[in-house]
Amino acid sequence: MQQPSTHYLSILFLSAVAWTLLCICTGAMEIAPECFPEGHRILHHAYRSIHFDSLELQEKAIQDMICDHSLPQGWYRFMIENKPAEMPTKCIEMNKCGTQAPIWLSLQSDSLPRPGERKALTACGTWQFFSGSTKDCCLFQIPISVRHCGKFLVYLLQPTQGCMGYCAEEKFQIPALHPVVAPELLGSQVYLKCTFTSPTSNWATGYTVIWSRLSTSNVKEQLHHDTTVQAFSYVEMDGINFRLGDTYTGLRLKVFCTVTVFRWDSPDHHTLPEESDGFYAGIKDSIVHHLAHVQFVSPSFVPFFVKCPESQFGIVFVPESLKIAEDGKEHILTILSTIPITCLAEDDICKITLQLSTQISDNLLGRTPNIALSTCHVDLEQRPCRENSCGKATLAVRAVNDFVENGNLISYITAKPVQPSKSLWHDYKPMDVKVTVQDLPTGYCYSFTDPHIITFDGWHYNNYMVGTFVLYKSLSRLFEVHVRQWDCASHHIAIACNCGVVALEENDIVVVDMCNRQFLETKSQVIIQNIRASSQQNVKIMKSYGGKKITILFHSGAFVRADLNDWGMSLTVRAPSSDFNRTRGLCGTFDRNSQNDFHRADGSSLPSHQNSTMEENFIEAWR
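Request: output the structure for the sequence above.
Response:
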């Protein structure tokens, strides 16, 4: 028997080292015993090659013929001239592979195992009874098993029935192809292009490219087969086999290309297939969160953010999700097209317009979405494709404060192409964006009669001091409420009452004043001022009960209500959820913790509510 060469022993050594490193790196990854160097033997005789003609051996050196009838049963790996080899999977002519009846691997409708997998397959022996007769490619059948060890295959072989031999063909080794699917605009049509690395080789090579997508049963279905000598392949997005936004049970159905290489002198023998990552052809949503100095949308105003009409269009899939809170922050929604935007004619505007709408979950049909969009339509205009984007548009999303503690609410943003000019966009339904809005509390603070104060967090105390005090100051925006208290009792008891209130939000100042005359002789005055005369007024004044109840409603949703009496007024102040944990003043800190409502001007807590001195210090801090 031929002795293994030094080069062959080096390969064995490097293989052992590689497997040792693989075990260390993969940790718990299980490797079949037959994949280790000691788990299989090597069949490396050059005569086993499918290109070796056995006729000369039969005439001159019949003793050198390959006969595997005495081959011990076990796992084997093939090598030819110290190069990796595998059993051929196509019928081999008689008198090849150093024998008369060559044995090859029949796959029929099956395939070779995937990495790590083992399969039971059938080996076939070719035979022709006499010259001129039809050959039988599978006259002899031998059950074998094949294990894919990642970089090579091993075979569980058994002795043959006679002087037959297992064939081998040199594995056509090339570098990784790295196929990638990307869209491309050719003329006025959109195509998907599969590109891959073109290997340098001593042989003339070709490529087989199979285009596929996941079926509704989650199985890949082949849609197009291409044979080419170029390192790329195209398929048209025809709206039939390759459609925009294919989905099933909420999952995006992606397109794949699988590439194999073959030699022109042996077109039936291919390399192992390499598959691209899945490509989703459609519109993707990406959410970018950022803080912005914005105000809450009050239902009483027409703000910059428009509440779009509800839409029953579309199917609810498992979408990109967004979690936001009723805290006044805006979020930027970026809409990307992963395919080029086409034009119907040369003078057309090359864009797709998407109509946007908001809708509520099906089980909450009695409620309205509490999200607002900065626009109800966006244009995706044509631009060169880069970084998986061929069109881009942005809009702002934020939660609308409903001033009701009703738990978290799920809404959806839907998009629909408006009058698409291309059949590719017809009946296309982009994935919805799921928006979960976290409910935050709305705060109420009261200062009534002489005056008793109840903070946003429910703490009770009294303020008998005369003067002007900060009742409520927001840290999230320019908003303050100041109250003036005067002496409203006899000369024997020191009691104060509210006689005036001033509220400021951004550009608007509103004053309700009863401090202008003597006690019990005064009448209220309402004054509205703008810091910047050219700016729009964003405040509403509502009066009821013959002018005895005055409500000042601000753009943010905050309000100040004054209930007027002969002696002065009682006040109610509402803080929107955007001010949660962001307030200072006599109304406390609005964080659902009444124990820290007494605080200094810098926000630091005063030690105790029970100490009257601390209470006085707290009130004085906000004079």
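The radius of gyration is 40 Å.
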